[in-house]
Here is the input.
Amino acid sequence: MSDLKQYIIKRKSSSADFAQGFDEGYENLRIGLMLKQARLDAGLTQSQVAHAIGTQKTAISRLENHIEDVKLSTVEKYAQALGRRIEIKIA
Here is the structure.
């Protein structure tokens, strides 16, 4: 196990606030990275996606890099601009 993983486990066990914030932040990061990777796989720029859904490039950047409390309809539009669809899974 890496030093980073050990540190995260130790901090999460000693701080409930850190644990909650970390898990939420990690999930947000994963969503943003998935969106960015899908866009790159589609061969599109942030500007192209922004144009397709009627928003600014900065909004796409925020979505990919700082996702927080994003509307499902926004993610659906993003996916449609890539010629894709979203699937939601409750686990």
Remarks:
- Residues 16-41 form the longest helix (26 residues).
- The CA atoms of residues 7 and 13 lie 10 Å apart.
- The chain has one domain: 17-81.
